[in-house]
Each structure stands twice: as C-alpha cells, then as structure tokens.
Amino acid sequence: MRKLATIRVVKDIMPIKDADNIELALIDGWQCVIKKNTLQKGDPVVYFEIDSLLPIEDRYEFLRKSCYKKLTYTTDNGTEEGFLLRTMRFKGSLSQGLALPLADFADLNKHKVGDDVTEKLNIVKYDPPLPARIAGNIKGKFPSFIPKTDEPRIQNMPDLFNSSLKGLEFECTEKLDGTSMTVYFNDGLFGVCSRNFELHDTEDNSLWRIVRSLNILDLMTQLGQNIALQGELVGPGIQKNPLRLGNIQFHVFNIWHIDKQSYLCPLDRYRLLDYLGIESVPILYDDLKVFENFKNVNEILDFASGPSLLNPNVKQREGLVFKATDAIEQMISFKAVNNEYIIRR
To answer: What does the H/E/C string look like for 85-107?
Structure first.
C-alpha cells in the first residue's frame, strides 16, 4: 500500500524569488511550498504526498479554499469528501504535497521518523471515478497471489544516488496514462482485473473486450504457464484519452510468475510478449545506466519530460518507469512522473 503520510525530516529551506510570505521546504526528493518561518532545516514533519485525500478535520481546514473535494463515490473506509492534494505552482515554484510540523499532531507522539501514519490519520488515495464500462461488474477482490501495480516515485528514493548502483543497467519505458489491467492464468483458472478488483466477463466491459479481441484467453491457455500480464489500457473513453489514440490498446509493463512469486526480467518479458503477440509499453532504453547519467532526483524528473513514443504528436508524456535489468537480490524499480504533464492535466 502506498505510504501517503509519513514522518520525515526537513532537508533544507529555500527562498522563493519575489515571495515575501512563502518559501520552499525540501523533504527527501520532494519540495513543497510552506508559510515562511513555520519550519526549519532538521524539523520533523508529517509529510502528505500528492493524491492524498485528507479527512474533514479542523487541523486541515486551511486547505478548504484550494483543496476541498466532494467525491462522486464512497471509498472503502466510507470517505465521501476531503481535502485533495495536487501538484501546484506558487510564484513559479513547484509544490507537491503538504508538510506540517510533527508537534501539531499530539496523536502521533509515540511515532518516530520513517513511520507510515497513513492509516492512523485516516488518509486515503484519491482515484478518479471510472466509467461503468471500465469499472465493470465486480467478481471479487484483487487476487492475493498477484501484487498490485504501483511503482514508487523516485522522490521517495533519494538514497539510491548514494549507493553503489552506478554500473547497474535499467530498462526505461514510457508511463502511459490509462487504467491498470491485469490478466492471469493460474492452474487452469483465467481472470481479468482492474486495479483493485477481479471482474466478471460482460459484453460491454472494456477490459474483457480487449482480452477477446487479442485472443488472450486462448494464448495463455495454450502457453500453460501460471503467469499474470500487467499493463495499461489506453485509448478512447479512458482518462479522457490524453494520448489521442484512435482505438483502445493494451500495453504490458510487467509479467508476474505466480509459482515463483517474482517478476520476469525485461528480456524474458520481451520474449514472452513476442511469442504471445501482445504489445509492450513503449521502450526508450533497455540498457540505461541511470545513476551514471543522472546526479539527483531533479535531473531524472527533467528527463521524464518529453513527447510520447506511442503518439509523438503528444508533446508531453505522463512520465517514465525504470526497472533494473541485471540479476540482483532485490528488484529495483521506480517511476518519474513528468511535472509539466501533471500540471497541464
């Protein structure tokens, strides 16, 4: 589960040009605008990431004018409204998330730096509502034997630049703005899932329609391996079709081996997708030495900016995803979301 609210330390405070009342707080790889002289370097804070939906409580009421959100659905924990944190600009400076002094949270007096306090503070992730043809007819919860798709952001992993990863090669792929889709075959059972649920096979469901059009059920049955294809469904009717595609497409970014409980390495994924005749997400590089080419988080975020490979007429892609290609004890992967794209959306 994504850590939306965590206890962290202010890395530095930076001035904002021509701003008398606000300044920038640097927290790990993030930066957010704060009221001047409310925080100092080294202060412990509760940091709330973008996409966090904060509950209606007095301590967050100062956000009402700019962040109040009335939901068109009810979340799993019953939330129907809240304060939604988005990427914004103030005096030309990018602001992502919210940092509040830890001292303001008496209910966190037993917690320490590094703790995840998302559930403690009743914070939930905001997900835009899906059209009925995508949300589908729910069959059950997302399968427990398959991990959900959600890469960590590079802003939460600044220590990677201080590690011995300079020679490590990474696959670099385009992050597509659509809806998450997982298709699995497991001991003869076949299933199709959205980000959070397994779905019944219905005629009008977009996920099942692409499965039928690509003949994925027969292909995975013939293959006979217990695997899950995980990718992005993009095109007309999905997230307002930001890539301006003429038809719905399914592009795979991960293959999960259910028996081994591990991801296939990029090379094995390419081979299997080629065998199945299913498209990969667009690949920029398959051998990029990230930590030789980039010195810090901001350089990677700048690199994430640029046109889409899926449709070059779209001048700003959503971002990039990086996955280590070498055999190492723990898979290293992360995403860099294009800030210009976020603001324009």
So the answer is: CCCEEECCEEECCEEEEHHHCHH
Alpha carbon distance 115, 56 (integer Å): 23
% of the chain residues with pLDDT over 70: 98
pLDDT of res. 164 = 78
Q: What are the CA-CA distances from residue 8 to residues 15, 64, 102, 113 (Å)?
A: 20, 24, 9, 5
For the chain, the residue count is: 345
pLDDT at residue 329 tops 70: no
| 120-145: pLDDT as tens digits | 999 999 988 878 788 888 999 999 99
CATH 2.40.50 fits 5-125, yes or no: yes
140 and 66 in contact (C-beta within 8 Å)?
no
Strand-pair category, 249-257 with 262-263:
antiparallel
Domain 132-344: give its CATH architecture: 2-Layer Sandwich (3.30)
Q: What is the pLDDT of residue 216?
A: 97
Reference 51, options 94, 99, 92, 96; nearest CA is 96
* Domain ranges, ordered by start, for the chain: 5-125, 132-344
For 294, other C-beta atoms within 10 Å of its C-beta total 18
